[in-house]
Amino acid sequence: MWKSAARLLRIAYTVVRFRLDTFIPFNLLPWYARYTVGLVCSIGRESAEKNRAERLRLALESLGPIFVKFGQILSTRRDLLPDDIANELAKLQDRVPPFSGKTAQKIIEKSLGNNIEDVFEAFSVEPLASASIAQVHTATLKTGESVVVKVIRPNIEKTIRQDIGLLYILAHFIAKVSSDGRRLRPVEVVTDYEYTILDELDLAKEAANTGLLQRNFTDSPLLYVPQVYWDYCGRDVMVIERISGIPVADIDALNAANVNMKVLAERGVEIFFTQVFSHSFFHADMHPGNIFVDVSNPELPKYIAIDCAIMGSLDDEDKSYLARNLLAFFKRDYRMVAELHVQSGWVPKGTPVHAFESAIRSVCEPMFAKPLKDISFGQVLLGLFQTARRFNMEVQPQLVLLEKTLLNIEGLGRQLYPDLDLWVTAKPFLERWMSEQVGPRRVLDEVKKQAPEWAGQLPQIPNLVFSALTHLSHQEERMADQTKAINALSKEIKKGRRNMPFKMLGLVSLAAAWITTDPVALNHLATADLLSLGLFFVGLYLLVLKP
């Protein structure tokens, strides 16, 4: 708790130090806020206003990696920010102040268990680029390959865990006091974000992600992923192939290379949907600092992706639901969109579908029949949020990464080719994917998928058949024995039922013999005694001897 309080004080100090209060529109606040907080913060606002973008960037840098990543996301949303702020925040993508190269060298030697000179033919102490979590240095392996060495910032995990702790406090507070707390599920969102950002601290996982993404796009004309040198990878260090290309955000350089910007933008959309729906494994940190362009063929430019620390994945149910929703959007079938939301449980079962359909239509209809540059996605998002509040639609944490990536793709598309129609580009891909899920190709793919398992079981089939037949034969013998026993028991029961009157008569005879017998007169064998003796033998016969 004390650490969290100290962190809160540091955040407050940063706000004051960099005069971030200048971003608050105090004229829109209630009167009591304007004459208290607003009055205090107004001191020096005019002089501080001149460098607002730089002050915001420096404040985010000073607060650490979580805030830097927030700035990275904002830098891609030029539709939501003034140009001066967007341009300044773009520096956070790969120009965060570096840490000492000597410190990086020590981390590398400790991780690899060797001196720098024993691993690399050449190593640059000066970093090539620096980001929020790590920085990279150029090097040359003993075998001659040109590589980059990625190194985790020292002591960064401590700062991240402190910030995550603050986010949890804020999330629990929102969940308790806000009427939207249950719908927004802030604690689950923070948990998901914690898992994601802590994964970034393990470069061995990033290397594995890079390897899988590389295999998914082997020989692809759309995307190139650099090679990983596995012998030089660990938790704190990763060595990969050094690539050459133009940063995707360098529009002037791309135009100078005569790159077909329309094709480049369309290929970006295709790469995204291929990763999500075909591979179920997508790059979830696609800000411009992680994307380069191979312009060796300007008419068919090829993307180059780096920094695979944050990757997303969707299961089959999520993919199917997402595809059906998007296709319904593209077809303007808002009724289907509303029904899918109800069926999925994202909105309560009792939600009036007609009203929900009408609300979705009012938000989404203006998006169509317009080029991307004419669409105000800020207003669309605001409308969707209002719709969500009205119908108690819950946030789905498993889709947070996907939504973040979609925002990045949209921002990138706006920069590359403002006239790109995202919907027209994506619709054929989704229709093709949906047809593959229900058509003959899907059946063939499932047969191919199961074929190795079936082939492995094939040699065992004769033994399995023999065992089954033997078991069946033994079962038939047991059933025959059981049938005989049941039949015998049935006969005994029927026989018992037939003999029951004779048994009863036998009991009566014995009772009569006992009653009529005079023990004193038995020695004289009177007529009465002979009658009793006769009744005794008759009863004995009926009870014991009669079959």
TrEMBL record:
It is an enzyme of class 2 (transferase). This is Probable protein kinase UbiB. PANTHER family: CHAPERONE-ACTIVITY OF BC1 COMPLEX CABC1 -RELATED (PTHR10566), PROTEIN ACTIVITY OF BC1 COMPLEX KINASE 7, CHLOROPLASTIC (PTHR10566:SF113). Its EC number is 2.7.-.-. Keywords: ATP-binding, Cell inner membrane, Cell membrane, Coiled coil, Kinase, Membrane, Nucleotide-binding, Transferase, Transmembrane, Transmembrane helix, Ubiquinone biosynthesis. It holds the Pfam family ABC1. The gene is ubiB. One of its GO terms (biological process) is ubiquinone biosynthetic process. GO terms for cellular component: plasma membrane. Is probably a protein kinase regulator of UbiI activity which is involved in aerobic coenzyme Q (ubiquinone) biosynthesis. The active site is at D285. Its main location: membrane. It is a single-pass membrane protein. Pathway: Cofactor biosynthesis; ubiquinone biosynthesis [regulation]. GO terms for molecular function: ATP binding; protein kinase activity. It comes from the Bacteria. The keyword ATP-binding applies.
